[in-house]
Amino acid sequence: MAVPQATKEWITAEDGEKIYTKKWLPANGSPVATVVFCHGFGEHINRYCHVFEKFAEAGIEVYGYDQRGFGRTGKKNNNLGVTGGWGISCSDITDALRKQRKQGIPQFLMGHSMGGGLVLHYATVGMERNNISGVIACSPWLDQPPAIRAGWMQMWLGDIGSILMPNRTVSLSVDAKGISHVPEVIEKYKNDKLNISKLAISGVMEILHNGRKIRDTDYINLTQPLLMAHGTDDPITCFHASKELFDKAPSTDKKFEPWKGLYHELHNEHQQDQVIKLYINWILERAGKSN
Fold it and tell me: Is residue 291 a part of any domain in this protein?
């Protein structure tokens, strides 16, 4: 029996940046839908192999890449933690959407954590926003939970730092115990040499300000079919910020899936099969190919 295929490729962006990409392809080579995916802070695309192998088995083609400053991309360009800003990140998404689009095949945009906040931002301002068949945001970084939220003094100092030293990186240590209840996942995360815990000051502030901006004003443009999923006990990104944005979004086809008691990486929890199935079925329903 034919099995889904995964391919990897280094591409060169218009500004010369080398970007590591990966694609998961259905076995028959004829996808019913395509997805462009953006990973989270400090990680890399190969942490999602177990997720997108199942997407490919369901006939969904997935294209992802190590974002600027992270994973193999960050190592290759010697700029770990420096993303270049959301303007450049959005340009990378635009390039990916245009290059991976297939005539007559629905195309979706999906992201986790930092990537979740980024795809929501793109859905409100991105050049290809009107050509997206749907958006999936998993545990998006729209705000920090109250226990670790930056105060006004930290925000003020961060804003000054982002002007004076925009590419100066700061440590944003992620407590691995907060990503999942599964001990093996935690150990694997801690031992993964491609994971990092630093980000440019300007990048940190951009995430925090844009997370607030999309909830205050830009949400009005969030009109695409929308699926948001978040663990109620996520200690890394704010569940309530996700719910706030979801409630405000004017999309007429939207679904919010709260996972009671779960942590940050829903796709790496004990319930991962149910979580992945949720994403797949939502895409297939909107592609007109539901089981």
Answer: no
Distance CA 54, CA 58 (A): 6
Residues 66, 92, 143, 234: which is the catalytic one? 234
Q: Which residues are bridge partners to 112 per DSSP? A: 138
Helix (H, G, I), strand (E, B) or coil at 30: coil
Q: For residues 153 and 166, what is the distance between their CA atoms, to the nearest angstrom?
A: 18
In a domain, 62, yes or no: yes
113 part of the active site: yes
- Give the CATH number, domain containing residue 207: 3.40.50.1820
Give the tokens for residue 96: 């990916």
pLDDT digits (tens, 9 = 90+) for 47-90: 999 999 999 999 999 999 999 999 999 999 999 999 999 999 99
What is the residue whose two structure tokens read 């997720």?
Answer: 51
Is 133 in the active site?
Answer: no
To the query of whether residue 112 is one of the catalytic residues in this protein, the response is no
Catalytic residue, from 89, 113, 202, 242: name it: 113
